[in-house]
Amino acid sequence: MSTAEVEAPESSAGELREKLTRLRQLLNHTLKGKAETIEQVLVCLLAQGHLLLEDQPGLGKTTLAKALARGVGERFARVQCTPDLLPSDVTGFSIFNQKSHEFEFRQGPVFADILLADEINRATPRTQSALLEAMAERQVTIDTERYPLSQSFFVIATQNPIEQHGTYPLPEAQLDRFAMKLSIGYPEAEDEVAMLRHAVAAEKQRDDEIETGFEQGDLLLLQNLVASVPVSRNIQEYLVALGRLTRKHSRIHLGLSPRGLMIWQRCAQARAFLAEREFVTPDDLQHVAIPVLTVRLGIDDLNPEQVIQEIINEVPVPVAPSPEEARK
Question: Is residue 215 included in any domain, yes or no?
């Protein structure tokens, strides 16, 4: 999870936070009644991770992805994963130009800033692996040539947990490329009524009136601000203790890797930033624990959330550091 060497001027930090607030408002207006889910989506985005949405069809996954792309002013692309989808359909391909007698590269949808890979578990393992390099290194290699992707490249992949016939489960190496796994779930009755009203043209116009003010590069500046949120040594020791406990828990056959620890820390930094705190607290680590760990731990249990909560309860919580201690 590398960050570019870009720093936001101090004078612009406040403006960036205002834009982030408006982005939150846009997403909450688009996906009604799912404020907590939207907070975790923003955490994942600011942490420069990738998001796996595991849910049934028709709950707003595509709507959320499109609204997010519009809100941050970035390019959006969608791939509908099917068994006949080829790796080149995702990454792009070279085509011979008869006039110039040279091969020209045609970019695939992976060159967008925000990519929605719908029903990713319906694609073959070969096509799934085509996303691996893009997600991990933000680049693709075609015919020995490397092509860089957007520095803020963000993948939202979806899969249906109910219908498994004819699917290809994601291997652990691919799952570990996602920072979080979330579920949107069904809305409350009053939110469904609001959704129906929103489908009326007059209500839709209001959605278009919400402007976040994001410009090209603002998202990357926010991501770099998140990467600089201080994490004190005692918080990092607490994080390591939690991670090491996952490796010897009786109901976990695949514990947390060092890369997983780094992703967990970055997500906690993003959560602290969203809460407008100057440093990470134990509560930040605990708040993002379930979406970060369920996507990468091999838990032999029908209730992985309960296992994760047991681990959190077992490790003593350190005292939150003062701002001065956090900066050391």
Answer: yes
